[in-house]
Amino acid sequence: ASAMICEMLELPALSSVIQICRARRIDQRLVLYVEHYLRPELFPGILDHDLNESLTELYARCYNLHYGQVRFDMVPTALHADAAAALKVSLGSPGLRIARINYDQRDRLIDCDLEYWRHDAIHVRANVRGKL
């Protein structure tokens, strides 16, 4: 895996990981390209499963793993070739990259994702309440 992915997964440089790439839809519209990187020792045989289903459900059903802590980093980006092709937009189109690092219920680092969202598919709302 790349140095960045190894760092995200807290693995030695050039470690082997499982990579799963998928395009996702909301209301039948392509909005997201995601690259999942999994620690292989935690997911033996995962590539033999139907990877079109929810990985969250697959983790729970087949590996007894449930998400615990999750860290998100969001930055604007230009979509790289794989993301642009999957989302059917021009190379370099604006997007949002969300890097997600996931821990399980035992606080073990299990995987990370790089999500690439179309810029026109994002709506952020935040409600903040002051002290009462």
UniProtKB/TrEMBL annotation:
Origin superkingdom: Bacteria
Species classification: Bacteria, Pseudomonadati, Pseudomonadota, Gammaproteobacteria, Pseudomonadales
Pfam families membership: UTRA
Domain UbiC transcription regulator-associated, chain residue ranges per copy: 1-123
Protein name: GntR family transcriptional regulator
GO molecular function, one term: DNA binding
Annotated SMART domains: UTRA
InterPro entries: Bact_HTH_transcr_reg, Chorismate_lyase_/UTRA_dom_sf, UTRA
GO annotation (BP), single: negative regulation of DNA-templated transcription
PANTHER family xrefs: MANNOSYL-D-GLYCERATE TRANSPORT/METABOLISM SYSTEM REPRESSOR MNGR-RELATED (PTHR44846), TRANSCRIPTIONAL REGULATOR OF 2-AMINOETHYLPHOSPHONATE DEGRADATION OPERONS-RELATED (PTHR44846:SF7)
